[in-house]
Task: inverse folding
């Protein structure tokens, strides 16, 4: 432990204060792109899971292929393809565009799986009973199936949100000044490794701890909404 | 022009080199998965203990490892350990350390979940039938735990293979780096090779991960109660 105390005393607080704004800017960028990506992921996830649930002919097969492709490849490779590969056939994307498209491509399949498991957990009888009392297909989904499915889907959805924000840490490869980029830059320029890394860890804690705690609270609340157990 | 790009893939030994790069990735993840299973089983058993101090320590370890992006952990070990403790770790060794630490945390949580999901009456019924404690574990507890654990552990393994792609960012020459080298070497003769080479890397990862995750899905379906 002595080693750690020694290093904490030696930390250059002036340096940390000077470069603190850089981290704030980078954290904002990470948060903004992460949230945009998560929003699009949710949209893709809803479309894919509903296509599977209602057995929509062509869309369902496309969704299956997409989910397998996206879940079995790393975001880093997807970004390299988008950022360095696609311009060769004339598709030029900005750094931010690549980042958001990449994150949505990855996240969409995870969201789809989470929603699918929720929809499948709702018993068939629920749908039949709802139809029997004269609700139309939209009402069945809106008032009967969806609320029950959501209760099952929320824990994996929350886990996906945290997972996707963590995945934003590779955005520096498409030339975005995110937290990793700032940290690596400071290490390279000033060799203040301890300070740069400490601020990096703190930044991610500040970003992710509240989300993690909130996810835990939401999960606990929704557990009472379960039917039958 | 379109048919030029893919030619690069089969020029010289380019494709073999890409496969060699992929092997580095797979090798590092296999070593980490192996170590994670061993340490994860231990951690999982430790986490079922009732001791509050042990509980608190394992919880902090688990939460910290889980909340930090793996790339941050790689930076901490690769750059941090060198500066702070004067340890000159190579990229590969740092990667194995980080992925083992991460895998152990995830695996430990899975093992803990599987262990506490076995109801107490399973132990008691076994004892009532006159089985010894060793027999109860051998014939009742371990088979049930394994059924719950195996699909999840296999999923974790594919996640680790995918996450291992990050090691290119701490300077390990793996499949993405080899791809970059091939593209740079052919920049003037075949300017549009990037599309094909990165596309190829994309499918190489897919070919490695897809069968394994199908296996996990099949096991899960087969063992559903």
Result:
């Amino acid at each position: 432990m002595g080693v750690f105390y020694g290093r904490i005393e030696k930390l250059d607080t002036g340096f940390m204060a000077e470069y603190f704004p850089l981290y704030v800017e980078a954290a904002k960028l990470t948060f903004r792109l992460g949230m945009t990506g998560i929003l699009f992921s949710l949209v893709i996830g809803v479309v894919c899971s509903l296509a599977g649930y209602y057995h929509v002919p062509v869309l369902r097969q496309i969704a299956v292929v997409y989910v397998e492709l996206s879940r079995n490849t790393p975001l880093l490779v997807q970004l390299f393809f988008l950022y360095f590969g696609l311009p060769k056939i004339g598709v030029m994307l900005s750094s931010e565009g690549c980042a958001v498209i990449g994150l949505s491509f990855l996240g969409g399949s995870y969201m789809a799986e989470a929603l699918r498991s929720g929809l499948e957990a709702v018993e068939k009888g629920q749908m039949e009973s709802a139809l029997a009392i004269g609700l139309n297909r939209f009402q069945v989904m809106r008032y009967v199936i969806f609320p029950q499915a959501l209760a099952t889907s929320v824990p994996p959805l929350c886990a996906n949100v945290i997972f996707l924000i963590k995945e934003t840490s590779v955005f520096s490869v498409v030339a975005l000044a995110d937290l990793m980029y700032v940290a690596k830059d400071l290490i390279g320029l000033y060799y203040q490794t301890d300070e740069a890394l400490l601020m990096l860890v703190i930044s991610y804690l500040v970003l992710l701890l509240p989300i993690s705690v909130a996810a835990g609270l939401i999960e606990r609340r929704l557990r009472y909404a379960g039917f039958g157990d | 022009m379109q048919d030029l790009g893919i030619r690069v893939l089969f020029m010289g030994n380019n494709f073999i080199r890409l496969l060699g790069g992929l092997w580095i990735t797979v090798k590092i993840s296999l070593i980490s998965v192996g170590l994670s299973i061993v340490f994860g089983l231990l951690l999982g058993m430790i986490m079922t203990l009732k001791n509050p101090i042990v509980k608190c320590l394992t919880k902090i370890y688990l939460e910290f490892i889980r909340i930090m992006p793996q790339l941050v952990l790689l930076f901490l070990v690769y750059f941090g350990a060198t500066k702070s403790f004067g340890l000159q770790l190579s990229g590969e060794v740092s990667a194995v350390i980080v992925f083992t630490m991460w895998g152990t945390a995830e695996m430990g949580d899975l093992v803990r979940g599987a262990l506490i999901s076995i109801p107490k009456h399973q132990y008691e019924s076994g004892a009532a039938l006159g089985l010894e404690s060793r027999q109860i574990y051998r014939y009742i507890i371990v088979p049930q735990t394994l059924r719950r654990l195996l699909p999840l552990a296999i999923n974790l393994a594919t996640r680790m293979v995918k996450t291992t792609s990050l090691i290119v960012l701490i300077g390990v020459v793996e499949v993405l780096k080899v791809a970059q080298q091939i593209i740079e070497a052919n920049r003037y003769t075949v300017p549009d090779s990037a599309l094909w080479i990165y596309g190829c890397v994309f499918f190489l990862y897919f070919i490695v991960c897809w069968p394994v995750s199908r296996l996990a899905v099949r096991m899960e379906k087969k063992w559903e109660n």
